[in-house]
Write a structure and sequence with these properties.
mainly beta; five-stranded mixed beta barrel; three-stranded mixed β-sheet; elongated
């Protein structure tokens, strides 16, 4: 299973129930694209044998596309409460993190979903 071509999911009214981390599912639906990247609008899902432990990928900015679970890090150079986002700078350039703010000049490590517009922060 190639994680470098990850795809987001829009569940709509699909209820996965109480899934444990690492649970595998078969999913079918329609592939769509919006400003955040590619995703599947899920029509149906079914249980699948086995489990897997996904760990975030550490990727340079040039590879931050495709709805992958990623871990990025760097120094916070700006933060905006109005847009609920901040920008970090590391050796690869600047990366926008959406979904929370951070203190300017702090060094942060963020786990989230990569999109063409930056990283969506995942609450833990």
């Amino acid at each position: 299973e190639d994680r470098l071509q990850g795809v987001g999911l829009y569940l709509g009214k699909i209820d996965f129930g109480n899934l444990a981390a690492g649970t595998r599912r078969n999913i079918s639906g329609t592939v769509r694209v919006d400003g955040e990247g590619k995703y599947i609008e899920v029509d149906e899902t079914a249980e699948r044998d086995g489990s897997v432990q996904l760990r975030p990928l550490a990727l340079p900015k040039t590879l931050l596309t495709g709805n992958n679970l990623v871990r990025v890090w760097g120094k916070v150079i700006s933060s905006s409460a109005a847009s609920n986002s901040f920008v970090i700078k590391n050796g690869y350039g600047e990366i926008t993190v959406r979904g929370r703010t951070a203190q300017v000049d702090d060094f942060v490590v963020v786990t989230g979903i990569a999109t063409p517009n930056g990283v969506r922060y995942l609450e833990r």
